[in-house]
Structure formats: C-alpha cells, structure tokens
Design goal:
Layout: H1 3-8, H2 11-19, E1 37-41, E2 47-50, E3 54-55, E4 63-64, E5 72-77, E6 84-89, E7 95-100, E8 108-111, E9 116-120
Antiparallel strand pairs: 1-2, 1-9, 3-4, 4-8, 5-6, 6-7, 7-8
EC number: 1.8.4.12
Keywords: Oxidoreductase
Family: Belongs to the MsrB Met sulfoxide reductase family.
C-alpha cells in the first residue's frame, strides 16, 4: 500500500481510485462544472481529458466524449453482474470510471469527480 498516496487522497478518492468504488451520482464536484481547462489524474497528475470534450450527459458524473491520446487504458469489468469497460489512468492505472457507447460522438467516458484534479487554463 502506498502510504503517501493514501495520505494525499480523501477517503472516497482512495476507495474510488484504488478499490474501484464509485462516488454517489450527482455528488461530484465536476459533474456540472464548466470551466475551461484540463482534467488530470488525482493520483499522479497525468493529463487525461480536456474541457473541450466534456459534456452534460445527465448521468450524475462528469462525462467526456474523448480522452487525451494514450492517456487512459481500458479493461473489461465483470463486476455487479454486468460487463462494462473500466477506464484507468494510462500512467498509474488508478480507477477513473467506465466507458460507454452512448455519447454524442459514440463514446461517453463516465468518470468519478474524486478521481480528477482540474487545472484551469
């Protein structure tokens, strides 16, 4: 266990990024957030998403239609009796959320706010 990371993160951010938990819908700081800038991994500060690709999906979590090239990795997730595509940080492999095929351009990255750090432009 990385004690420095555990001390850096909130208890919920630790559960989400390290234990694949999910924050409650409509509770995250970035769900209805619309400032211009960049979204980075809260664990390692890797640049993941641009505000240019963020949209309001109404799902209760920040949604993006595209990640920065090679910024994320995908895994098949069979938890909770369903098959989904898990999205993790491409650098440190922290759990970020899931990817679905129902976004405005065919993709919706549904990402936990506590897994993100925002950098304003």
């Amino acid at each position: 266990m990385n004690d420095d990371l555990k001390n850096k993160l909130s208890p919920l951010a630790w559960k989400v990024t390290q234990e694949q938990a999910t924050e409650p819908p409509f509770s995250g700081e970035y769900d209805e957030f619309s400032q211009t800038g960049q979204y980075h991994c809260v664990c390692c500060d890797h640049f993941l998403f641009s505000s240019d690709t963020k949209f309001n999906s109404g799902c209760g979590w920040p949604a993006f239609f595209e990640s920065i090239e090679d910024a994320t990795k995908e895994r098949i997730d069979h938890s909770h009796g369903m098959t989904r595509v898990e999205v993790v940080c491409g650098k440190c492999e922290a759990h970020l959320g899931h990817k679905f095929s129902d976004g405005p351009y065919g993709t919706r990255y549904c990402i936990n706010s506590v897994a993100l750090a925002f950098h304003a432009k």
